[in-house]
From TrEMBL:
<protein>
    <submittedName>
        <fullName>Crp/Fnr family transcriptional regulator</fullName>
    </submittedName>
</protein>
<keyword id="KW-0804">Transcription</keyword>
<feature type="domain" description="HTH crp-type">
    <location>
        <begin position="142"/>
        <end position="215"/>
    </location>
</feature>
<feature type="domain" description="Cyclic nucleotide-binding">
    <location>
        <begin position="10"/>
        <end position="95"/>
    </location>
</feature>
<dbReference type="Pfam" id="PF00027">
    <property type="entry name" value="cNMP_binding"/>
</dbReference>
<dbReference type="InterPro" id="IPR014710">
    <property type="entry name" value="RmlC-like_jellyroll"/>
</dbReference>
<dbReference type="Pfam" id="PF13545">
    <property type="entry name" value="HTH_Crp_2"/>
</dbReference>
<dbReference type="InterPro" id="IPR036390">
    <property type="entry name" value="WH_DNA-bd_sf"/>
</dbReference>
<dbReference type="InterPro" id="IPR018490">
    <property type="entry name" value="cNMP-bd_dom_sf"/>
</dbReference>
<dbReference type="InterPro" id="IPR012318">
    <property type="entry name" value="HTH_CRP"/>
</dbReference>
<dbReference type="InterPro" id="IPR036388">
    <property type="entry name" value="WH-like_DNA-bd_sf"/>
</dbReference>
<dbReference type="InterPro" id="IPR000595">
    <property type="entry name" value="cNMP-bd_dom"/>
</dbReference>
<dbReference type="InterPro" id="IPR050397">
    <property type="entry name" value="Env_Response_Regulators"/>
</dbReference>
<keyword id="KW-0238">DNA-binding</keyword>
<keyword id="KW-0805">Transcription regulation</keyword>
């Protein structure tokens, strides 16, 4: 089932005509939760445009520690850099829930025929670089609780559902994965979540978070 793409993601920026041409150039595939969609280090000439579900993009250190680079949702374009420059993929893409996407093999050919989309893609890549720079600043300037709060704010703003109790987020990440996304140990993340709970900002459960005070969480994130 196709889900409305997230604002700012690749698919959301296409015109109806461009989106129709992209669908003509690709084919639909589905993956179950936990499936590996792309592997770090492999070469591939195809890209995936996510149409439903969420994935994590991760890399592994020499010591085997997983570092989560991003969580991406409907509309996201994945695998584009490897498809364009021919170098090995820089991250592993794993389905956090059942996903569906459009696999496009001749992505360069599609861009050659759609100059506006090529320019738009450059802007998206610049946006990713700016986001990576912001995260490097976070690691140097924020404590673990601040980094965890920042990631929870991001999830709440992107995927949160307003309820009478607060903003409910169906958290697609385990504590180990959240630790990999914040550059901290699992123990440090558990302590940070407990601190945020004690302050009355959040409630946590199995793969879910309820944010009681989003403004307060934003302030702690800063």
């Amino acid at each position: 089932m196709t889900t409305r793409p997230e604002p700012g993601e690749f698919l959301a920026l296409l015109t109806p005509e461009e989106a129709a041409d992209l669908r003509t150039a690709g084919r639909t595939r589905r993956w179950e939760r936990g499936a590996t969609v792309m592997n770090e280090g492999e070469t591939g000439d195809w890209v995936l445009v996510l149409t439903s579900g969420r994935v994590k993009v991760s890399s592994h250190t020499a010591g085997g520690t997983e570092v989560v680079l991003a969580v991406r949702g409907p509309g996201a374009l994945l695998g584009d850099m490897s498809a364009l420059d021919g170098d090995p993929r820089s991250g592993t893409v794993t389905a956090l829930e059942p996903i569906e996407g459009l696999v496009v093999h001749d992505f360069s050919g599609f861009l050659n025929e759609h100059g506006r989309v090529a320019v738009m893609l450059m802007r998206l890549i610049v946006g990713r670089l700016r986001d990576a720079d912001r995260k490097r600043v976070e690691y140097g300037a924020f404590d673990t609780t601040g980094r965890v709060a920042t990631r929870l704010v991001e999830l709440a703003e992107r995927y949160g559902e307003q309820t009478s109790a607060g903003v409910r987020v169906a958290l697609p990440l385990s504590q180990d994965e959240l630790a990999g996304w914040t550059g901290a140990s699992r123990e440090a993340v558990s302590k940070a979540l407990r601190t945020l709970r004690d302050r009355g900002l959040i409630e946590t459960g199995r793969r879910r978070v309820i944010v009681y005070d989003l403004d307060g969480l934003r302030k702690r994130a800063r």
